[in-house]
Write a structure and sequence with these properties.
alpha+beta; elongated; three-stranded antiparallel β-sheet; 39% helix; transferase activity; Arc Repressor Mutant, subunit A; 20% strand; nucleotide-binding; 16 helices
Length: 497
């Protein structure tokens, strides 16, 4: 049954939205949070488990030191305070993918707290305040078999894979984001996108939203316009794309307004986001903290990072990705539109590495954003996984600059690189791609083309230099594209002037 919605502009006329975002980041540690099981994605179900992550009696957890380090680096990058002493807690609830019937998390003593991130939307800066970033473990994965929706309701039975249970997570929780008004959906999208870029720059996660290694829970409430009182919130769970974050906020704003406008109350609940239809549906009534019966984890010692270690980790932080984007755009001379496309394609690190090899920025952008992005899209892979390195792109462009090949021939070199045929020089030699550098064969091809098109020759003699294009085209065809078009033009004009 479809829900009643209020047009977005009408929502804003009567209500002020408040956002809250909880982003779960799956860390790329080699082993799980509290045991030595591997964390490799895509392994056969229930092959990466042990007594500890299965919650078997007598199994004792041990904290993953690398996960603690990653948590601190994330907190520092988000301008957070780092706790001098913190501990884990048991979050108790029963669910089939929780083998222990509790999740080891942090409650009132998170490792990172009181931070912020500034995001820009349409020239306006919004400060998103971070309440906490805490460590916890992921749950398993349930697959519901049968039924039409893929959810537990209506399914014939369910299968549980515990490989993911125990993988280290950092949950980053914002304070309520108020005052965004009509830009609330865009602020939510910009924040999650900027956070993902920061996580990638830190190197603590692959941050692949489509694989669930970064997931956003979207909290939303409406209050009567100007009241300043937060309304009852709903939490839309596991939104896994930037576009969906924006759409989920927009949908929930319209749905909340319709419920409130009908004189009814908002139920504090979790909601499921449906990517195909762009709607949310009811999940379960949302629990408050006391419902989870938190208490300190008795099997783990507190975590007390020294101030010296924290400062050592601070020194490892990379340049802020947003600041770096602004700096490189100015250095490379990219327009706003060019940088937007580069950023959206994830090409900036690749272009930066190619420029570091000696390639001009616009040449690097041309190959990565046109030729190689097309090939990545055709193969269904990320641009960084297309199979060509920045050093190889720089080598190809150096051969173009040296007039050994032209752009058309360079595309065939990329074919050879992807086929594993060797270095660019070896591919050129094996495929016979080198440009014709001797004027003799070019003059012979020009004479043949002029003889075949005497009317074009007369136009050129009459001063119509643009007509030389037809002769150049014929010469390029005769030489299989291996002539230097500029040199051919010079020879034509010399002959007919």
């Amino acid at each position: 049954m479809s829900e009643t919605l209020i047009p977005f502009d009408d929502v804003l006329a009567s209500y002020d939205p408040a956002l809250g975002l909880e982003v779960h980041v799956e860390l790329n540690t080699v082993t799980k949070m509290f045991c030595g099981c591997p964390t490799e994605f895509g392994a056969a179900p229930n092959t990466q488990v042990c007594p500890t992550c299965l919650g078997l009696p007598g199994a004792m957890p041990v904290v993953n030191g690398k996960a603690v380090e990653s948590a601190i680096r994330i907190g520092l990058a988000l301008n957070c305070e780092i706790a001098e002493w913190c501990r884990f807690a048991r979050k108790n609830y029963f669910y089939p993918d929780m083998p222990k019937n509790f999740q080891t998390s942090q409650y009132d003593e998170p490792i990172c707290f009181e931070g912020y991130m500034d995001v820009e939307v349409d020239g306006e800066t919004f400060r998103v305040e971070i309440e906490r970033a805490h460590m916890e473990e992921d749950t398993g994965k349930s697959t519901h078999i049968g039924g039409a929706t893929g959810r537990i309701h209506g399914a014939d039975y369910s299968l549980v894979d515990y490989n993911r249970a125990g993988i280290p997570l950092i949950e980053i929780v914002t304070k309520p984001i108020v005052g965004a008004g009509a830009k609330a959906p865009d602020v939510a999208r910009a924040y999650v996108g900027q956070l993902r870029d920061l996580i990638l720059a830190l190197g603590v996660s692959d941050a692949r939203m489509e694989q669930g290694s970064i997931r956003a829970d979207v909290n939303l409430s409406l209050s009567p316009k100007g009241s300043g009182v937060l309304g009852t919130r709903t939490e839309t769970k596991n939104v896994n794309s930037l576009r969906s974050v924006e759409r989920a906020v927009r949908y929930e704003m319209s749905r909340h307004a319709a419920v409130l406008g009908a004189g009814e109350s908002i139920l504090q609940e979790t909601r499921h986001w449906h990517e195909d239809t762009g709607v949310t549906t009811s999940g379960r009534e949302k629990s408050d903290a006391e419902d989870y019966r938190y208490f300190p984890e008795p099997d783990l010692v507190p975590v007390a990072p020294s101030r010296e270690w924290v400062e050592e980790l601070r020194a490892t932080l990379p340049e802020n990705p947003t600041a770096k984007k602004t700096r490189l755009q100015a250095e490379y001379g990219f327009s706003d539109l060019e940088m937007r496309d580069v950023w959206a394609a994830g090409a900036l690190p690749l272009i930066e590495a190619t420029v570091a090899e000696g390639t001009a920025p616009q040449s690097a952008r041309k190959w990565w954003l046109a030729e190689l992005l097309r090939r990545a899209n055709d193969a269904g892979v990320e641009l960084a996984d297309v199979g060509v390195t920045p050093a190889q792109v720089a080598a190809v462009q150096a051969l173009v600059d040296a007039k050994t090949i032209n752009d058309k021939l360079a595309r065939q070199v990329f074919d050879g690189l992807l086929a594993g045929e060797g270095t660019p020089e070896e591919i050129i030699a094996a495929r016979g791609l080198a440009m014709v550098s001797d004027d003799g064969p070019l003059i012979a091809a020009i004479d043949e083309a002029l003889a075949a098109q005497p009317d074009i020759a007369d136009k050129i003699r009459g001063g119509n230099q643009a007509a030389a294009g037809a002769i150049i085209g014929a010469v390029m065809k005769a030489t299989r594209g291996q002539a230097d078009a500029g040199r051919v033009r010079e020879l034509i004009l010399e002959k007919l002037s």
